């Protein structure tokens, strides 16, 4: 399937009759829209000439102050001046890559990794080398071995891109023990760490994990977002970076967009000031936990021949299909059965992953999730029968660059 | 002066006691903020789950439909599918450059040209060749000669970047006679035309001029914006491009930001549907005309030794200083006298322009504009005395790349 075919499939998958386990859209129906609407009215009436005007390239200082309070929940001590506000954290990824990466440079990332990051890295002609992860996240010994091997080959990695919490797509979380180990390895090899953390406050069991940035202010660039904890429609993300990097970020952002939206920034600030955002996050956590339970319960009931992790936060379950099945070639059949997912190949730079799929539990209700898994089971069973009769349906992916699925569906 | 020094100067220039004739900020105090606030409240209450969610990479179809009505005022016949919504038209510039320009490629632009575009072109390592403009805009014979010379040197230009209406910074407008001539020259030389038109509806005298895009749907990429006709704080711009380019634009935009802000897009759509935006533009035109009159009147009264054009729309007057004066080295003294402008060097790729300055009349009231010009006259007179005593104060600009003035101040 070419990118355009996958696009066509996903446009079908957005129809209401399809249960989409593909998208990473948060369930914003849970927000108090009447309270937010009223607050936006007041914002425009009282601070409209600021909200509707151009702003600073770095972002509004008042919002950057609020952001320091949010990230303090993960142990991050930041000054408002360390922060650059971006058009979603996707723009932060784009700017950081633009600044640090020349064509041919190596970026190390988990195997698998976020499709939107891989797309950015590819657009700047980086080479991505994947490193193994397990149930405790990125494996330190594997990272050490990869960086040493690259050095021996004369190809020093410039950057580690990691999603420590409730990984997209793998669902796993880097253990607290491993965090300083990973940082020590990167420091020793002179590798910058880019910590992408959109889901960190959405854990189902524990307090937030300490961010990598909380251990090391100089070697870590932290990417954050209000898209999952509040709402993605404002496109407000941010970067926390060392001073010299921050200056480059602001210049690069001004070149790209002049300044981030003041209306959006003040809307987020108003939300943080007006609504009980901590209680809202608690509601989200409970709601998403219930949906996770629905998904893994339905998988156990209907597709026991597959295997998966049970994430302790975030939006995603990473499913290994029964032997011989190919998630990508199975997708058109799944959409015909009115269920959608993202094939695992989207999350690798090199065409791996056809035996996996990412299922997201963030948007559909628990009942819809269960119905989606039932439909998926029909497809998996039919494919499995074919495999038993004719051998594998898997095909080598000869063009890994064709996985440009529309990013908003994969956030 | 280094970029950081200019930055420091401009941060002083933003103080209220300074009359800034530097920034390109529209005077949004003229907007009906109570009506807009109420409409935003209704938007969030009734369409909040859409406004606050991720959207399409290309932008909301309902807004793209409204955009076709707006650009029809300039004779542009576009289908909503031809349009890609961007985070201000600055992002459109960035994406178009990202798609078309490889390091070393030549872009032809007016002399002078928009500083924010030059910054983007520089960031993609393009080479910019300036072409003469006069009171009727870009000079066709000069364009022809430049393109022929480049071809003879084996350096084909890929793109013409032009601001046909109420040029930033030059204030001039391309005559209707010249428009098809410019297009014909570009077509013959295989040069893509990028038409940047943020001010097109803000003419003081006539109906809007026909856009270059209205003559040629295939060879022109049109960049538009709601920043000057409504409000920049939402950061909503757009590109109208041929189909093949539009597909690339959407992919590049998804890589850069996933999707433009739905909240911002629906806010603009709501504004267009709720408020009498045509009457608002009419108000803006009258207000800006009055400010232009204040500026050129004060120049004639207080700095008659300088020369300037009288723009028939837009935000800017391009002033040639009396012989021997240097706008860049004079700036610190001007800021000390509590008046700010942008030195002409910012608008050239190659360090020209030290004998010019850009004065903007969009933001200060007529009284403040007159006061600003009086202060400027004090500085110009003092500098002129120095020139008469000691010869020129002008210094060669040995590092044209240091003109990275904060872009939001120069929009």
UniProtKB/TrEMBL annotation, chains A, B:
<dbReference type="InterPro" id="IPR050859">
    <property type="entry name" value="Class-I_PLP-dep_aminotransf"/>
</dbReference>
<dbReference type="GO" id="GO:0030170">
    <property type="term" value="F:pyridoxal phosphate binding"/>
</dbReference>
<dbReference type="InterPro" id="IPR015421">
    <property type="entry name" value="PyrdxlP-dep_Trfase_major"/>
</dbReference>
<dbReference type="InterPro" id="IPR004839">
    <property type="entry name" value="Aminotransferase_I/II_large"/>
</dbReference>
<protein>
    <submittedName>
        <fullName>PLP-dependent aminotransferase family protein</fullName>
    </submittedName>
</protein>
<keyword id="KW-0032">Aminotransferase</keyword>
<feature type="region of interest" description="Disordered">
    <location>
        <begin position="391"/>
        <end position="411"/>
    </location>
</feature>
<dbReference type="GO" id="GO:1901605">
    <property type="term" value="P:alpha-amino acid metabolic process"/>
</dbReference>
<dbReference type="InterPro" id="IPR015422">
    <property type="entry name" value="PyrdxlP-dep_Trfase_small"/>
</dbReference>
<comment type="similarity">
    <text>Belongs to the class-I pyridoxal-phosphate-dependent aminotransferase family.</text>
</comment>
<keyword id="KW-0663">Pyridoxal phosphate</keyword>
<dbReference type="Pfam" id="PF00155">
    <property type="entry name" value="Aminotran_1_2"/>
</dbReference>
<dbReference type="InterPro" id="IPR015424">
    <property type="entry name" value="PyrdxlP-dep_Trfase"/>
</dbReference>
<keyword id="KW-0808">Transferase</keyword>
<comment type="subunit">
    <text>Homodimer.</text>
</comment>
<feature type="domain" description="Aminotransferase class I/classII large">
    <location>
        <begin position="32"/>
        <end position="376"/>
    </location>
</feature>
<dbReference type="GO" id="GO:0008483">
    <property type="term" value="F:transaminase activity"/>
</dbReference>
